[in-house]
Amino acid sequence: MVYVLPLRAPTPLVPPESTDDRSPGPGPVIGCLLLEQFAVSEPSRELNERLDLMIAYTAAALHNAQTYQTVFLLPLWRAMGNVINGMHGKKLLKTLAAFAVIAIVTCVLAFVKIDFRVEGEGRLMPVERREVFVPYDGEVIEVLVASGARVNAGDLLVRLRNNELRSEVIATESQRDEKRKLISALLAERDEIIRSPTGERGNRVEGELAKTLVELRGLERKVDVLQERERRLNVTSPIAGVVSTFEVDQLLRHRPVRRGEILLEVMDDTGPWQLELQVDEHRTGHLFKAQAEATEPLPIEFMLVTSPERTYRASLKEVGTRVVTSEENKPVFEVLASLSDDQNQTRRIGAEVRAKLHCGRSSVGYVLFGDVIEFIQKYLWL
Known about the structure:
The protein is α+β, with helices and mostly antiparallel strands. It has helices spanning about 45-70, 75-85, 90-110, 165-195, 200-230, 250, 285-295, 365-380; strands at about 1-10, 30-35, 115-125, 130-135, 140-145, 150, 155-160, 235, 240-245, 255, 260-265, 275-280, 300-305, 305-320, 325, 330-340, 350-365. It folds into 4 domains: about 1-10 and about 25-70, no CATH class; about 75-110, no CATH class; about 115-125 and about 270-375, Efflux pump adaptor protein, beta barrel domain (Elongation Factor Tu (Ef-tu), domain 3, Beta Barrel), CATH 2.40.30; about 130-265, no CATH class. It is built from 8 helices and 17 strands.
């Protein structure tokens, strides 16, 4: 025997003050109770009496369970209930202590101010330096200096050779000499004409002489220009300093070069020095704001990568006006900083440095978690 008994939702209770005399109808079916018997095909009287009571309790339990599962945000309310139930005795003290610590830390992060510094990387370089360019196309035939050599302004650095220019100089000088000889002949002819004048011949000689003189002056100026170009093939140092190009002789000797190429670089390591830094673009907003509010140059602390055990001081001199791309293909701003004169440090050209630029004071939370805050502002802004 299979006995199927419907389970209905419990009838809601009627308040005592209700004036509605109608009896509530049966609730909706929410399930069923299955009973199986293998020996008897009819239910006994005792079974029917027990089933009435079982159906009532089972329907009420199932209805309560279904109602419980439909509560909105049930996991949240359950978690909150567990927390509230657990706040007794020692657990309550521990919870209050944890909340107090969190509140203190939050206040410190939000209201305590400390120095806010923007980081940058760069190199230590002399302020006075010059790149020596190729004046005209040619070939390097002699390098007269070595890497690290100290030179004075006007010292000969490199000799170049331009065969085409040399040929043009020779050809122009030959034309000039021919014109000079022609002028000498015309002057002699004019003197002869003066002693025995004839009209037409005298006019022709005077015309040719004037024309040849003009051509001679043009050739002489051309020779001067070409000779000046030849003199400039002897490249000299524009300033006194140190040749900073590495392996300059191996780099340049017998090498064909074109006008405008950089031959080498001379730097004055005895004069003032500066930091040439690169600051990430997303950090320069703080730098610009601090620079606008400050009445004095912003202080900078830096260290040499070769000797990180000591820090040195500098001051902000100039910030670039446009974004450039670094060697790592990141957008950066170029920053120049002046060194303090009262510090004793070993200065090497191009030494790598890491610097921190002071940009005023900010909350501890922003100093520690500024990257996270800026990420949220940048990518989650609506």
